[in-house]
Specification:
Elements: E1 8-13, E2 29-30, E3 33-34, H1 35-45, E4 51-56, H2 60-67, E5 74-79, H3 86-95, E6 103-108, H4 116-125, E7 131-136, E8 139-140, E9 144-146, H5 151-156, H6 163-169, E10 174-178, H7 191-200
Parallel strand pairs: 1-4, 1-6, 4-5, 7-10
Antiparallel strand pairs: 2-3, 6-9, 7-8, 7-9
Length: 201
Amino acid sequence: MHTSHDSVCALVLAAGFSTRMGRPKALLDWHGAPFLAQICRTLTAAGMSRIIVVTNATNDKECRLQANPADAGVVWVINPRPEDGMLSSIRCGLGALGGTRAQVLLCLVDHPGVQAATYRTLAAHAAAGTIVVPTHAGRRGHPTVFGADFIDELRHGACPDGARSVVRAHPDALREIVVDDPLVLADIDTPADYAAATAER
């Protein structure tokens, strides 16, 4: 039986156009399941009771049909202007929180191989005044957990470099957590990245 991380909400960003990949990354196969379905299932297995997925108007219907695990309580949000970049998707997703105060586990759809144990470890270290980042082999990876104290800044701050701006603005809040999970480093942006990642598993 897994522990439920009720104070942590997972926000999965799947609204990008995947221009370098040439097809929607959310729907690529990851060893038998679409990327997005795999991430949602793993988050659920890790005890995440709240999952928000941000899509775009073009891929939303197919994402819901193919990538929505029946056992996960997923809240779906469409970013009406995904061309405005990742920050716009983050803000659309955070809007679904309403007035709820929570830590937010920010997940990228191109990291389908992150382990449930990694999500659990990051959630266990989450706190209102911290920003938690996984590291492997001395490098920072994804996902990042933003404490509740930083959510307003993510939603309304200038953030010229997106979420990275918030991380850089609060070095004292940063907590690096070493994880035994090389796929926290695996950005899958191109067909070559995809071929390499699927071959390595």
